[in-house]
Specification:
- The chain is an alpha+beta fold.
- It has 2 domains: about 1-245, Beta Polymerase, domain 2; about 255-315, Methane Monooxygenase Hydroxylase, Chain G, domain 1 (Up-down Bundle), CATH 1.20.58.
- Helix content is about 55%, strand content about 15%.
- It has helices spanning about 30-40, 45-50, 115-125, 135-165, 175-200, 210-280, 295-315, and strands at about 1-10, 10-15, 20-30, 60, 75-85, 90-100, 105-110.
- A 7-stranded mixed beta sheet has the order 2-1-3-7-6-5-4.
- It is a multi-pass membrane protein.
Length: about 325
Amino acid sequence: MINYLALENGQFTSSNSTTEDTIWLAVERPSEEEINHLIDTYKLPKDYITGVLDDDENSRFEGLHQNTLEEPALLLVQYPHATISPSGYTQLDTFPFAVILTTDGKVITVINKSADFLKKALTTPFPNSELPIQESLILYLSWHISTCYNRFLKELIQETNKLEGELKVSTENSQLYQIMDIQKSLVYFESAINSNLEVLNRLYSAKIFSDPRAHLPHLHDILVETKQAATTTKIQLKLVDKISDTFSAIVSNNLNNVMKILTSLTIVLTIPTIIGGVFGMNVKLPFANREDAFFWISVVTTVTCIFVIYRLKKRNLL
């Protein structure tokens, strides 16, 4: 699907076909026909578009060394996206996002899966800038990607804190599955953010920017936000590893406590069974000829059980 976007009063407006005012072509899950149309119309290398169809594509850039765009340029970064893991819990993956600069002043973005940051970028007022529209869009989209990472990281931190509160009573594996999904998310984040940082740092010396000094403040803010995400990811990954080890130990300990209580109760409940079995024998026994024998046997059984319970509690076994 190709969404043709123009900019009016700081807001993006869409149409089904290109016009003179079209500055941005937002392409999502392109068909073979749409891919061929974009390649033929804007003279693009095919891998600029098909690269994002591979979910494992690494961040990279091509053609940004040009002083002026005599051929299309590519900036490919990775963005976060929430999915459902095989264990049934929310997991954050990263997918490639291509930004293509055409020689006629337009920007083409290509994704193969829906992106939360892109929806937010389309609805947020576009900031006024003296930079050319292509340069402004690159920085604008890069900013939304970097803030998207930090937003997802805050959600992961909240989920981790919630799991910590369940440690005291947990005897199940569900929390372990959730921690495993959080660890996977953080590993994906660490790799993607570091790759994005490498590409974004190259923009400092990119020759396609008409005024190198004008874009530096915006790029600095993006890099600060991205480095913050990288640092947070690194710290959280270490914390979650420690929490995972602690979680496993606590779950095992809680299960041992349950087994200890059940074993102690089994001992207590065995006492009436033994006494009842003895006095159920068809031989001469104490109290056998007394009419109140059942009462006294019940009293002895109850007292013995209470004594055993007292001793078990004193030894912290019940």
